[in-house]
Amino acid sequence: ESTSFEVNFTPAAWLDYELDLVFTSNDQVDPELAVPTMGTGAEDASHEQTFTQDYYDEVDVMWVVDNSCSMDEELQQVRDNFAAFVTEFSALELDYHLAVITTDMDNPSHSGRIQGSIITQDSADPEAEFLTYVDQGSSGSGSERGFDSTMAALTEPVISTDNAGFIREDAALAVIVVTDENDSGSTSTSNFVSWFTGLKADPAKVSFSAI
Asked: How far is 96 from 63, CA to CA, in rounded Å?
């Protein structure tokens, strides 16, 4: 007789695997049957992990959006994913400040200055406002300077003028850059990290992410 069955293959590395599936039976001639089996752990293999991420109830989130011409092809994908983000973010019921700046340091009306206004949970329509402000188009400077823009946004004189009221002493701070290019500013990564982690007495209350 014959039978069909499935074998689950869950590789732990990107390697070629070879093994024998051994079947035992009461066959008088061949009580064991070895079936050669091969498999490959590929890059597109799926492996799922779960973890619990803590978050602060009070958080200031600054989005640094690349508005250069190279973003033209990516804008619709960015819009779609921002919509998904703000829906999930609102469901967390945090005490938040949301603000948007760009990577453009050539235009004086940008250069770390918040585009639109600061959004809070008390805004009339936070989701609609956020989606309006993050859509910065693709006519900005071709020199993407996310580090410089972030530093300008969170230091004097901009932090006390155009961006006044965004950052709160007790809130966690998250900066998220959305771009399709490497940073081309004048600030080195090491200098930026040193400055950024010093913005809060507890360095664990700051985070910087790049998408």
From this structure: 13
| Pairing label, strands 58-65, 172-178 | parallel
The angle at the Cα of 136, spanning 130 to 139, to the nearest 5 degrees, equals: 175
With a CB cutoff of 8 Å and minimum separation 6, the contacts of 122 are none
Beta bridge partners of 33: 23
**120-to-70, 168, 177, 200 alpha-carbon distances in Å:** 31, 12, 20, 21
Contact between residue 86 and residue 127 where contact means Cβ atoms under 8 Å apart: yes
Using DSSP's 3-state secondary structure scheme, residue 199 falls into coil
β-strand 172-178 against 119-120: which pairing, if any? Answer: unpaired
Quick: pLDDT tens for 108-137.
999 999 999 999 999 999 888 988 998 888
Cβ pair 86, 131 in contact under 8 A: yes
Instruction: Write the CB contacts of 70 (distance below 8 Å, at least 6 apart in sequence).
Output: 138, 142, 180, 181
Q: Mean pLDDT in the chain? A: 90
